[in-house]
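Late entry, written up from scratch paper. The run itself happened at the end of the previous shift, but nothing got recorded in the book at the time, so transcribing now.
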Amino acid sequence: MEIGDKERSKYYMRQYTNLKDSITIAGRTNADTTIKKIVAEVDKGHKESSKKQLIIIGVLIFIAGAITIILWKRRKRIIHKKYEALIAKINNEKEHQIETELSHDIKSNEPKSSVVITDETIKVLLFKLEKFENSDKYLRKDLSLTWMANHLNTNPKYLSEIIKVYREHNFTSYINELRINYIMNKLYENPIYREYKITYLAEECGYATPRVFVNAFKKETGFTPSYFVEQLRMSSSLHGSFSKTGVD
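Output as recorded:
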C-alpha cells in the first residue's frame, strides 16, 4: 500500500471514530434528557397530587370545624334556654307563694301503689313532710331514709311510698331536688354566694364532695353550678349598667 493510501485510511478511521464517539455522546445526552423529563413529570405529578391532598384535608378540617362550632352554639342555646326557664320558675314561685296543699295531695281514692296506707296516716305524713321541707334538715350530710323516717315518727316503707306517690321522686332524687332548689335560691337572692367556691356551696347544701354536688345540680337543672353563677353575674352586671344609665 502506498503512503497516500495509508494516510487516507488513517484519516477515514479517525473520522469514523469521531463519528462513533459523537453518536455515543449524543445518545447519552438524549437518554439523560429523556430521563430528566420523566423525573420532572413524576415530580410534577407528585406535587400536584400533594397539592390536591392538602386541599382535600383543608376542606375536611374546615367542615369539621364548622360542624363543631354549630353544635357548640346549639348546645349553648339549649343550656341558656334551660337557665331562662329556671329563672322564670324561681320568679314565678316568688310572685305566687304556694300555700300548703294537703287537700290536693290526696287526689283520688284509687290505689296508687301496693302499699296500703290509711288516709289519716297519709294526711299526717304529708303534714310532717311539708314541715320537713320548710326546715333545713334536708341539708344534713348524714341524712338517710331511716333517719328521716325516725324523725317523722314513721317507718321507712311508708315514707318512701309517700315520697314516691305524692312527690313523684325516690328518696335520693327528692332530697337532691330540695338541696339544689335551696342553693339556687341562695345564689339568686344573695350575690355574696356567687363569690363562694364550689366546695363551700357543696357543703352548704349538704353534699359530702363537690363532684357529687355538681352532678346533682346538673341532673336537676341541665347545667353546672358554675354556669348558673356566671349567668347570674352577667345578669347583675347588665341590670347595674341599666340602673346607672337611668340615674344619669
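Residues 1-93 form one domain.
(Scratch paper discarded after transcription.)
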